[in-house]
Amino acid sequence: MTRTLYSLCGEDIARPFSPHCWKVVMALHHKGLDFEERRLAFTAIPSAENGVSKTVPILRDGSEVVADSFRIAAYLDEAYPEAPTLFGGEGGVAMARFVEAYSNTVLHPAIARIALLDIHALLGPEDKAYFRESREKRFGKTMEDVVARREEEIAAFPARFEPVRHLVKQQPYLGGENPLFADYIIFGALQWLRVCAGSIFMAKDDPVTLWFERCLDLYNGMARETA
């Protein structure tokens, strides 16, 4: 069976950067499933799978087409129960929902305030115009104004991970001895920052950095190849 994951890139297709797509890339490796990744520019997404979604990731698995990273993860656990679980049961799904909410409301806005212009720089001309218009509408200000206090945001960034830091001091992963989808949610956010801005802006000995390095080492270090 051929699986296709539609993900996001800029002008350089070797640098996929979407945090949501990285969650699914990690999830597919976690499940041990082969797949082909088709990396699309922002403005090419409507052409994927007859416009099933305005955003990526989109997964085609045989006759099934699933959009949204969390829905894809839930689908993978249901469709491939014999492969390693992404959630570890119903409680793990609830935990991952909480982690997703934390990431989307605390981490993603902070990363945007750090890396918005870095993301813009990765895009082709048509995508640059789309990205500026859509993000300035979303934030209600120019991109330059969004990142005006970038250095202050970088200084405050490590503190936003205190719940994660507290946990990974005690165990290797959010999921315990092994990663679960909750790990990939936070990993996706930091990989987004790493690819776009070149750093995660935390000390090398920070427990969060050490956890992130463990995640980068997963699956033969495939995530390290994108930089």
Automatic annotation (TrEMBL):
<dbReference type="InterPro" id="IPR010987">
    <property type="entry name" value="Glutathione-S-Trfase_C-like"/>
</dbReference>
<dbReference type="InterPro" id="IPR036249">
    <property type="entry name" value="Thioredoxin-like_sf"/>
</dbReference>
<protein>
    <submittedName>
        <fullName>Glutathione S-transferase family protein</fullName>
    </submittedName>
</protein>
<dbReference type="InterPro" id="IPR004045">
    <property type="entry name" value="Glutathione_S-Trfase_N"/>
</dbReference>
<dbReference type="Pfam" id="PF22041">
    <property type="entry name" value="GST_C_7"/>
</dbReference>
<dbReference type="Pfam" id="PF13417">
    <property type="entry name" value="GST_N_3"/>
</dbReference>
<dbReference type="InterPro" id="IPR054416">
    <property type="entry name" value="GST_UstS-like_C"/>
</dbReference>
<feature type="domain" description="GST C-terminal">
    <location>
        <begin position="89"/>
        <end position="227"/>
    </location>
</feature>
<feature type="domain" description="GST N-terminal">
    <location>
        <begin position="8"/>
        <end position="84"/>
    </location>
</feature>
<dbReference type="InterPro" id="IPR036282">
    <property type="entry name" value="Glutathione-S-Trfase_C_sf"/>
</dbReference>
